[in-house]
Amino acid sequence: MKRKVINKFLKNYKIPFSRILLILFYVLINFIKIHAQNNSYLNYKFQALDNSQIDISKLGNKKMIIVPFDASNPNRQQLLQLDSLFRKNKSLLNVIAIPSLDFGNALKEGRLKKLLYDTLNLSILIAKISSVKKISGANQQPIMQWLTDKNLNGHFDIDISNPGEIFIISENGKLFARISSTIDINYIKKIINKKVD
């Protein structure tokens, strides 16, 4: 019955089958593009430790390093190295550090701010203290949801295992590297200077 209706429609309007396939292909491609745009990391906004808003879409087309760190015992050396890397490469790079509740009892927010901003004098963006692991479910920090879910980022589907793991996103919004916290900063320098398609 349905086939007869379709055939009658095609005969009445004289639409070649190849044209119908072309239209369906066009609709599918646009659906994929819209879905990809909705899953772009550029759509994410979240609160910073200083109570401002971090809007990734306003950070420009630069490589992005995102690093969750232990809010109970921040790795000062790693944060200082990433801050130095950011200061020397501001035209190429943004860095967001995310203090995590998942590795111990977090420092009080005021104490953490004093350590990061006053003592270490960091200029990188620092998100509000939050959960970074998938086990947190809906409470997982928004950009960390994108970084750990292949359905969103298109590449990796793996949870955070240690504080200080580094995620690198290309200028095009492609998650292309996940690096252990123990990797030397010189290796990271090489990665951020590579062209990524």
Structural class: alpha/beta
User: Percent of residues in beta strands?
Assistant: 15-25%
Distance between the termini: 49 Å
- Main beta-sheet strand count, sense and barrel state: 5 strands, mixed
**Spans of at least 5 consecutive residues with low confidence:** 30-38
What can you tell me about this protein's structure?
With 197 residues, the protein is an alpha/beta fold. The chain has seven helices and seven strands, in the order ααβββαβαβααββα. It has helices spanning 2-13, 17-38, 76-88, 109-119, 142-148, 150-153, 185-192; strands at 45-47, 53-55, 63-70, 93-100, 125-126, 166-169, 175-179.
What's the SSE blueprint?
Blueprint: H1 2-13, H2 17-38, E1 45-47, E2 53-55, E3 63-70, H3 76-88, E4 93-100, H4 109-119, E5 125-126, H5 142-148, H6 150-153, E6 166-169, E7 175-179, H7 185-192
Parallel strand pairs: 3-4, 4-5
Antiparallel strand pairs: 1-2, 3-6, 6-7
Summarize the structure.
This protein has helices at 2-13, 17-38, 76-88, 109-119, 142-148, 150-153, 185-192, and strands at residues 45-47, 53-55, 63-70, 93-100, 125-126, 166-169, 175-179. By secondary structure, the chain is α/β, with parallel strands linked by helices. The model is unreliable at 30-38 (pLDDT under 50).
Key features?
197 residues, alpha/beta, 17% strand
